[in-house]
Amino acid sequence: MKILGLAGNVKRPSRTASLVEALVSAATSKLGLDGQTIELVDAAPILFKALRSDQLDAEGRAIIDAVEAADVLVVGSPVYRASYTGALKHLFDLVDYRALTGKRVILAATGGTPLHGLMTEHQLRPLFGFFNALTLPTSIYATETDFTDYEIASPVVQERIERAVSELAQVLPLSDHTAAARAHANRPALASASA
Prior knowledge:
Blueprint: E1 2-7, H1 15-31, E2 34-39, H2 40-47, H3 58-69, E3 72-78, H4 86-93, E4 104-111, H5 119-130, E5 134-135, E6 140-143, E7 147-148, E8 151-152, H6 155-171, H7 176-194
Parallel strand pairs: 1-2, 1-3, 3-4, 4-5, 4-6
Antiparallel strand pairs: 7-8
Helix pairs in contact: 1-6
């Protein structure tokens, strides 16, 4: 399965990109997913060449195809005027409205103050509701004080990352090996319960 991080940052270095990458890294190491991250600082100039999806060139189409093909998305944005960045909005304007149905999404954001901590709930979550995606309950919001040299330094943020990855593990389809192991582990309990 593929997990794709989308960091809505429009400059580098970026705390948002670090947060998204930490989430993708945690999911790949704990759940064995194939991971990749796209930063809008790189992707936006390519995507802004097109106002509609049928105007995308090959490079832009590859970015949108990666979003639509991912099994899991980690979407993060710096808070900009109480919402996510326009570059991130433009990316999702180019995604087919049916392409994200049922996909799992972890939401994240960064800001300069705790006052914008609910941006994930009031801005990002409704966006993915439109796409009929499954946003996980735990979102991650981090302020500048949660970072040292653009790396996450807060144990509270790390704990939320771990919680989000645990929630992701609960909603991912089981591999044949995991399903067989769980069935085998539950067999004695079922036998004793019926006795």
